[in-house]
From TrEMBL:
Name of this protein: FAD-binding domain-containing protein
Superkingdom per UniProt: Eukaryota
Organism, as annotated: Dibothriocephalus latus
Domain FAD-binding: 320-374
Pfam families per the UniProt record, alphabetical: FAD_binding_3
Amino acid sequence: MVGFGFAAMAATHPFLRSKRILLLESGPKTQYKKEPNHRNRVIAVTPISRRLFEGVGAWKAIQDNRFQPIKRMKIYEMGSNAKLLLERSNPDDDMGYIVENDLIISSLEAVVDEAVKHSDTKDYPGSMEVMHNTVVEDIQLPKSYDAVNMPRLLVRDRAASSKDAIPIEASLLVGADGFRSAVRNTSGIHTVGWEHDQTAIVANLNLPDDYDPTIAWQRFVDTGPIALLPNEPAHQPSGIVASIAAAVKLAIPKSSESFTPPKILSVDPNTRACFPLLFRHSSFYHAPRVALLGYVLFCGKKVSPIDRGLLNLFTCLFRDAAHRILPLSGQGANMGFGDAASLAKHLNEALSEGADIASPRFLRAYTSDRQRSVVPMAAFVEFIQALYSTDASLGPLEAPSGSVLMGLRRLSSTLGISDAALSIRGLGMDLVDSNNLVKVQSNPFACLLS
């Protein structure tokens, strides 16, 4: 498996304990140290993802350190009184858990270390090996499916005195190597997607002692969404903040005390970070036998031509290598955990039926299984982004004079388009809030709560 992180979830799954697994990680081993200030990169873990962590034995390390349960999420928007309260059918149940990313990686590394230590024993009849600080210099994939041809990698250890690459062969190559996946690119698996010309900003925010840390907040403003994901009191990692200035100056609605967000006291120094927002989705999560030709239209956008010819076999993808969506309630990370569990399940089915671990039949089943979950959520997130992006092009008259954008906004103001869009959004949010069944189905956590 190329990549650590989410790959460790699949590698340590009980279904695969009888296999020989090698994890290749480009970075050093993660050492989590609990400090007063939280790290600014956090993940909203859903209850079903928590059960996956418990299944591989990684949740205990998280419990022994720190995490914050979320009971409710309050959502509202600028320009209207519309609001939405999301919670479980039993208000005492947790919607999710805010956990530092480094703690998640460290907890999985601890499980992997145990697997390495107990390899070739009764509990771990297979073997586990991890190589950190590695560079994959070359990937050679067979173009025909048979037992003789296998993927071959040339791997170099940065820490080793020798600069010679180590040849490695594997029955199945799993790409968990991120958005710019070398495994995906070498396999010729096509992706569709686009950039949103927006940058997300995250930071740690200091809040008063009297705020409720079990409530997450999200507000839609004309510059993008502002989210507040609570952690332990005093030091508060924010979620996706389109503008730190907007977050600090977050207006407090006077009409409803129950929808009054906590006052932001300050932004922790040296905790601000940013990353671009984009959408990218692989046509397959495994390398199929036949490639499609030509151009594809996806959501009205023309994407680049697909590579011609026969695609390479013996490979599969998950997490960012397979899909990357806009961040909303931590869905991208939780879909990655789901990928890991599904891949382990389908590989176990292949082995149980006496098939090869890289059997195209079971890798196709993995792709179908995951895309049924990922594609609807990705479409939902893109729809929400499109619904609220009208403010950027049809909002207040603040564009440079004489620009095309100013012309659009003047037309919008004359025809009342932006006001109509705002009214429709507000009405929709109120209707969802008043209907419990619809609220559950539209909950961004819904498909992963179970």
